[in-house]
């Protein structure tokens, strides 16, 4: 089948038109080969254009299809086309916001939780986000009032500063600068005096510096000698001594040796306590019965004998010895 030139030309023209339509819509952010949904909203005034973007979370998903004015309600009706793959609830809102400082607005779909998804042809609520310029314009009166107060405060501050500079009182800035100048002059005089003192005692300072150098050398030598001392051997001996002392204290604690037995064994304490008690009894008995231990004999009379209970022992054989005075101590 032979196709005429006219048909070929028509096909080429139609293809070009379709390509131009596709390219035009694609550049506007709309792919006509994909499925799209149409939604509608309204605003109190019109601040949009057909080239305004439609975004969701900063991503372009559609474009504005039509902007019309409703005479009955006084509202601006806006129809938007959104890619069909984008899903959001019917409770979502369409927000108009500024895209830059120089003006220009766009629409953003703000997803909201809801049980029902938005469908093609649904009406969505709208809201307006105030931009920086709009906010500054509304608050300009307040800003200007605050600026006026700020300028008055700055003017008062500058007047006070000028008064402080021009003041001749002791609290003025001139007096402070004069005092600072005197201080600088005094410091310069002191520096000159120090310079003359250094020049005058140059020889003494040189000698002192030399002595300090010698002292530093001696300290360095002492430090070197101290480093050469065999500290490791000394520490080892000290450690051995401490170990021996530790062993000795362990033996004493365990009751080994004479000192250990004295500290651990209770027999020494018991014997000392018994001897002390017997000595106390002996002294008490000596006070009460001195004749039992000291006997005065005149004419050689034999002293009386006592038993362990303090009773006198009778002895018929006891006879006087001679007439000499004698003292017998038993």
Give an account of the 3D structure.
By secondary structure, this protein is an alpha+beta fold. It has four domains: 1-33; 35-135, no CATH class; 154-229, no CATH class; 270-329, no CATH class. It has eight helices and eleven strands. The strands form three sheets. The chain has a seven-stranded mixed β-sheet, with no helix packed on it. A hairpin with a 6-residue loop joins strand 5 and strand 6 (105-110). It is elongated.
Percent range for β-strand residues: 15-25%
- Global structural class: alpha+beta
First-to-last CA distance: 173 Å
Q: Compute the number of helices.
A: 8
The SSE string, one letter per element, is: HEEEEEEEHHHHHHHEEEE
**Biggest sheet: strands, sense, closure?**
7 strands, mixed
Work out the oligomeric state of the chains in this entry.
single chain
C-alpha Rg (nearest Å): 62 Å
Core attributes:
8 helices; single chain; 11 strands; alpha+beta; 330 residues; two-stranded antiparallel ribbon
Short description, anyone?
With 330 residues, the protein is of the alpha+beta class. The chain contains 8 helices and 11 strands. The chain has 4 domains: 33 residues; 101 residues, no CATH class; 76 residues, no CATH class; 60 residues, no CATH class.
């Amino acid at each position: 089948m032979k196709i005429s030139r006219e048909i070929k030309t028509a096909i080429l023209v139609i293809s070009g038109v379709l390509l131009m339509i596709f390219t035009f819509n694609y550049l506007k952010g709309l792919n006509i080969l994909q499925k799209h949904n149409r939604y509608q909203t309204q605003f109190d005034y019109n601040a949009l254009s057909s080239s305004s973007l439609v975004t969701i979370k900063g991503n372009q998903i559609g474009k504005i299809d039509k902007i019309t004015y409703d005479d009955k309600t006084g509202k601006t009706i806006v129809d938007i086309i959104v890619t069909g793959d984008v899903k959001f609830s019917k409770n979502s809102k369409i927000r108009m916001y500024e895209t830059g400082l120089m003006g220009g607005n766009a629409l953003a779909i703000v997803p909201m939780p809801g049980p029902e998804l938005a469908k093609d042809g649904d009406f969505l609520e709208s809201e307006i986000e105030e931009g920086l310029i709009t906010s500054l314009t509304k608050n300009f009166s307040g800003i200007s009032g605050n600026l006026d107060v700020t300028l008055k405060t700055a003017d008062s501050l500058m007047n006070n500063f000028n008064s402080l500079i021009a003041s001749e009182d002791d609290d003025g800035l001139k007096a402070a600068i004069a005092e600072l100048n005197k201080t600088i002059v005094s410091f310069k005089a002191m520096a000159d005096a120090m310079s003359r003192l250094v020049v005058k005692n140059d020889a003494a300072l040189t000698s002192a510096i030399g002595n300090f150098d010698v002292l530093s050398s001696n300290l360095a030598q002492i430090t070197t000698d101290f480093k050469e001392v065999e500290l490791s051997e000394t520490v080892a001996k000290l450690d051995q001594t401490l170990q021996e002392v530790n062993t000795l204290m362990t033996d004493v604690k365990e009751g080994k040796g004479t000192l250990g037995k004295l500290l651990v064994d209770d027999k020494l304490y018991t014997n000392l306590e018994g001897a002390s008690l017997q000595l106390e009894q002996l002294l008490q008995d000596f006070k009460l019965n001195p004749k039992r231990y000291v006997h005065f004999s005149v004419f050689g009379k034999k002293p009386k004998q006592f038993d362990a209970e303090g009773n006198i022992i009778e002895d018929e054989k006891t006879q006087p010895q001679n007439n000499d005075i004698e003292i017998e101590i038993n």
